[in-house]
Amino acid sequence: MGETISEAIGADHNSFDAYYDNIKNAADDAAKVRWRNQLTWTLARHAISEELTLYPAMEKHLGDIGVQLSKTDKEQHLGVKNYLYQVQDMSPTDPKFWPLLDDLMGVLHHHIEHEKDEDMPRLEKLLSRSESEALARDFQRTKLIAPTRSHPDAPTEVHLESLAGLLAAPIDYLRNMVRDFPTDSDQRDADERIQSRMEDESNNTTESIAAH
Q: What is the value of pTM for the model shown?
């Protein structure tokens, strides 16, 4: 059985906290930069994929409520993208780095709570299991071609954003070739913590969906 859209989105949400913790707890500045790069890569792709797959599905299935929820989400995304844009190339030794990173996580958590409490329960209630899994596959596939850095000035309309993403992604991937990322071993450790977070939250997600 494949993952649902709530599970796919939730896994990314948990990864953001895991990578933030790794930045804070890294032994040296080089390791902080590697986890900063991983957070940037994951969050940038996640945001664009939501805007190209999740939000159109909300507008389709939820009607006017979905349109309004999607509008709120995109406004929240803009705040996330603006902070990420400032942090993604900033050295951890810069005195502005930690306040900006904490601000980023603050606006990100506000957005995550909105999706978890409002978007996902409403949408999942209207989707069959197979429809939810299909949407999750679309979300994951879109991440493969999405930009890997923050571009807050890019359009958020689906067709324009698709074009902008296709243009920006190759440049981002070239930039990533000269950026350091966590080792495979470090990433496996992070993945285990993310999975643990997912297991802890699975019951809460089920209860939230049932309540709606």
A: 0.79
Question: Among 10, 7, 13, 6, which Cα is nearest to 108's?
Answer: 13
**What residues contact residue 31 under an 8 Å CB cut-off, 6+ apart?**
22
Q: Are 148 and 169 in contact (CB under 8 A)?
A: yes
Q: pLDDT tier at 182 (50, 70, 90 boundaries)?
A: confident
Cβ proximity of 192 and 184 under 8 Å: no
Could you give the CA distance from residue 17 to residue 38 in angstroms, rounded to a whole number?
Answer: 12
Which amino acid type is present at position 180?
A: D
Q: What is the pLDDT of residues 101-113, one digit of tens each?
A: 999 999 999 999 9
> Can you state the angle between helices 184-211 and 5-25, rounded to 10 degrees?
130
DSSP assignments along the chain, one per residue: -PPPHHHHHHHHHHHHHHHHHHHHH-SSHHHHHHHHHHHHHHHHHHHHHIIIIIHHHHHHHHHHHHHHHHHHHHHHHHHHHHHHHHHTT--TTSTTHHHHHHHHHHHHHHHHHHIIIIIHHHHHHHS-HHHHHHHHHHHHHHHTTS-SS--TTS--SHHHHHHHHHHHHHHHHHHHTTS----HHHHHHHHHHHHHHHHHHHHHHHHHHHH-
In angstroms, rounded to a whole number, what is the distance separating the alpha carbons of residues 191 and 201?
15
